[in-house]
Design a protein that fits this description.
The protein has 170 residues and is mostly helical. The chain folds into 2 domains: 124 residues, 23S rRNA-intervening sequence (de novo design (two linked rop proteins), Up-down Bundle); 40 residues. It is 78% helix and 0% strand. It has 5 helices and no strands. Helix 1 packs antiparallel against helix 4, helix 2 runs antiparallel to helix 3 and helix 3 runs antiparallel to helix 4. The protein is elongated, with a radius of gyration of 24 Å.
Length: 170
């Protein structure tokens, strides 16, 4: 499936959800007096979805890859901070929430890695490099694929009709 907007990307949505949940956690009383820790994890978590969006909008595969790795690094930073929170006695009441957030950030890292791996093995250079000729070639390719699908479907329907006729004759 091709995405035309970063808001459609499942990994961007997961990044936004992670940020919403981190902000919910950092609004709790345990973070009073720990402003620098709160600010750092909030900045890191917002960086995940923002870098996905920025890379998506850049228009080249190479720039997208760069920003996906930055987003992945930010998700790792969030996870690292959550590991720290697990070890600090002040955040003992948040163990379950911290564990859930760590799992979410790990899932995002895996999604980003998978996407980056698929892009690295792709011949796609990015939208910025599209020309009228490359767009025409891509459109013609899609039209051929659609024709082949319709042709196969018609063949299957014809085979089914032929079998039905033979069964009736038998």
């Amino acid at each position: 499936m091709k995405y035309s907007r970063f808001e459609e990307l499942p990994v961007w949505r997961a990044g936004i959800e992670l940020a919403v949940q981190v902000y919910g956690m950092t609004a709790r009383a345990e973070f009073k007096g720990h402003g620098s820790l709160r600010d750092q994890i909030e900045r890191a978590t917002v960086s995940v979805s923002n870098n996905i969006a920025e890379g998506f909008e850049r228009g080249t595969t190479q720039e997208l890859l760069t920003f996906l790795y930055i987003a992945r690094g930010s998700a790792g930073e969030v996870r690292s901070m959550l590991c720290l929170f697990e070890r600090l006695p002040h955040f003992t009441n948040l163990k379950s929430e911290i564990s859930n957030l760590k799992s979410q950030s790990e899932i995002i890292c895996r999604q980003l890695r998978g996407w980056a791996d698929s892009l690295q093995n792709s011949e796609i250079k990015g939208q910025r490099y599209l020309t009228d000729r490359s767009r025409r070639i891509e459109r013609e390719k899609l039209e051929r694929e659609e024709f082949a699908r319709e042709f196969r479907q018609a063949q299957m329907e014809n085979i089914a009709r032929t079998r039905k006729i033979h069964e009736q004759d038998s």
